[in-house]
Structure to design on (601 residues):
């Protein structure tokens, strides 16, 4: 009898544990709270003063998709960050803002932002909450002053209702604007690719994928490190430099940072073409070929790349097959992240 | 009956008057005995040159040293982390102490330092700019809101000082000094802290109106090699911002207190 009771106890415990694990394993298990995937490290952003709520997320999502954030009501955040492409701007070297103006750098994909210690290709933005300030106020993007934007949003009844439910006040201010967008942006967690399922022991990788994984770990993982596929460092990866764009040096004012840009995550990289800070490479083949035999040596070229990355054509193909396992369709087609304006 | 009512009214009125006059008759200080803090006003009186000539926006002045001609169209800056030194040598720090000073039609902006403990003070310390912590802490409100246009979007950090205007001596015909930078690396820290003595004692009783009256010399940007002819646009942290921050901190003197 005692044995049976104990067994039941153990089974119950196991069941509870399993349930708990399931919750942390599925981001969006509760789709409006931030959960750290079980195989991810702790995030950089601490949600201090800005815990995610369903109402805040919904407000942030609406702002993200709202073209009225721009001077002439033509450009939203989503104009250059398209969900189905992991919130990148496919096919565009640089993106188009109001009145057809173009920027100078490639629109980055948006996911796993809570783990980013800095933002933009040169890391010039030091906090996720104020990241949207750049695209909103940049002359070539939305070209709005924060003051004008706040006044504009204050005239829109639909926002005062959302604000009331999210923050308990009908008045917009820049902090509520940034907090709501941060709630939406931090919930863009991409952790359900085939590779993630493999890590969780749920699926097997094919032989080719495994060979590609091995090649990746040998040749690429120094920079595209860990489960997030970036070490968030700034490196000169041997591109022929544009004298107009010194990369990280513009922020640090240190000549040793000339031509350095932030190492991007390679999750969803099949979808986030074109590549590099200026979108100069259209395909992953071109990117790998650059590392094979295109490295341009300058004083700041990363030491790990001085001799290039020797890979055969066959190995290149396997590497790309492995990178394909990092595509997260669940993320890209999650309706929770979709356009609330139904366009 | 009517008469009784009338008498009653007189009685009530007299009582009330008596009550009020009693209160008035109380010896000084008049306020409730519980007053433990007061408010210190800080007047920032903007002037031109060390002779403290009158200064106004949109008015052309000749620089006393360089003789360059200068017209201001904008002068905005942060004063933060105000501290006051007591006669016993201890310092009182104002919590959440951030002020955005904007010089406009009124060239004498006034800051209210509230919650100052009752006591006698001899010195003031304040930061021109914003401490490094608030430069890296995400979205802020009030004086530190990005809606004030004093935050760099592309290179996170507050613009501590904005001085803009026109000058025939500038190659571009204009000048725009956006001064900031909070990092120690590569010598880009433009946060400047001034400590100044009142040259007297400032009493905060909770009922008086103590005031610290500063003179601020708007001509002080052009000093130490900074001329409109060679530096007319500063839009990022760096060497010029450092020199301009060093220059402007010297613009402040405590003229008098009362």
């Amino acid at each position: 009898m005692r044995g049976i009771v104990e067994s039941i106890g153990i089974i119950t415990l196991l069941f509870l544990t399993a349930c708990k694990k399931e919750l942390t394993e599925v981001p969006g298990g509760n789709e409006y709270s931030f959960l750290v995937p079980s195989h991810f490290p702790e995030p950089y952003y601490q949600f201090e003063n800005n815990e995610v709520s369903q109402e805040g997320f919904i407000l942030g999502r609406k702002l993200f998709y709202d073209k009225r954030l721009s001077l002439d009501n033509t450009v939203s955040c989503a104009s250059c960050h398209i969900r189905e492409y992991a919130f990148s701007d496919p096919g565009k070297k640089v993106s188009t803002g109001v009145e057809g103006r173009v920027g100078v750098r490639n629109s980055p994909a948006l996911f796993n932002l809570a783990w980013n210690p800095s933002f933009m290709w040169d890391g010039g933005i030091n906090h996720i909450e104020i990241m949207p300030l750049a695209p909103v106020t940049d002359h070539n993007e939305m070209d709005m002053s924060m003051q004008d934007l706040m006044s504009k949003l204050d005239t829109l009844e639909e926002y005062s209702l959302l604000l009331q439910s999210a923050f308990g006040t009908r008045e917009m201010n820049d902090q509520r604007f940034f907090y709501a967008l941060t709630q939406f942006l931090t919930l863009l967690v991409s952790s359900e690719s085939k590779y993630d399922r493999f890590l969780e022991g749920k699926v097997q990788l094919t032989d080719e994928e495994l060979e590609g994984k091995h090649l990746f770990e040998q040749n690429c993982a120094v920079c595209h490190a860990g489960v997030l596929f970036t070490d968030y460092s700034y490196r000169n990866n041997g591109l022929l430099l544009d004298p107009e764009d010194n990369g990280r040096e513009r922020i640090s004012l240190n000549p040793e940072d000339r031509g350095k840009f932030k190492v991007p995550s390679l999750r969803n990289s099949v979808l986030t073409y074109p590549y590099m800070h200026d979108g100069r490479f259209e395909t992953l083949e071109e990117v790998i070929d650059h590392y094979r035999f295109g490295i341009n040596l300058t004083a700041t070229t990363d030491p790990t790349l001085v001799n290039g990355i020797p890979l055969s054509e066959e190995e290149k193909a396997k590497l790309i097959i492995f990178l394909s396992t990092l595509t997260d369709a669940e993320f890209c087609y999650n309706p929770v992240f979709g356009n609330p304006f139904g366009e | 009956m009517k008469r009784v009512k009338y008498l009653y009214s007189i009685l009530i009125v007299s009582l009330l008057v008596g009550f009020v006059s009693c209160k008035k008759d109380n010896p000084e200080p008049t306020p409730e005995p519980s007053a433990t803090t007061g408010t210190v006003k800080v007047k920032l009186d903007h002037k031109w040159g060390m002779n403290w000539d009158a200064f106004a926006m949109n008015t052309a002045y000749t620089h006393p040293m360089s003789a360059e001609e200068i017209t201001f169209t904008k002068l905005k800056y942060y004063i933060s982390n105000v501290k006051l030194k007591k006669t016993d040598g201890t310092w009182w720090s104002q919590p959440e102490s951030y002020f955005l000073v904007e010089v406009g039609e009124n060239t004498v902006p006034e800051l209210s330092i509230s919650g100052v403990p009752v006591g006698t003070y001899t010195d003031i310390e304040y930061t021109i700019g914003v401490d490094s912590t608030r430069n890296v802490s995400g979205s802020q409100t009030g004086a530190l809101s990005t809606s004030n246009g004093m935050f760099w979007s592309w290179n996170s950090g507050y613009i501590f000082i904005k001085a803009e205007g026109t000058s025939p001596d500038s190659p571009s015909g204009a000048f725009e000094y956006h001064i900031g930078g909070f990092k120690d690396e590569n010598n880009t820290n433009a946060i400047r802290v001034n400590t100044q003595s009142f040259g007297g004692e400032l009493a905060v009783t909770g009922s008086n109106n103590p005031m610290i009256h500063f003179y601020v010399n708007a001509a002080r940007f052009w000093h130490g090699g900074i001329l409109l002819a060679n530096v007319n646009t500063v839009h990022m942290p760096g060497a010029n911002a450092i020199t301009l921050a060093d220059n402007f901190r010297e613009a402040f003197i405590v003229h008098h207190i009362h």
Remarks:
- The interface with chain B takes residues 120, 124-130, 133-134, 136-138, 145-147, 150, 173-175, 178-179, 250-254 of chain A (CB under 8 Å).
- The CA atoms of residues 198 and 342 of chain A lie 34 Å apart.
- DSSP finds 13 helices and two strands in chain A.
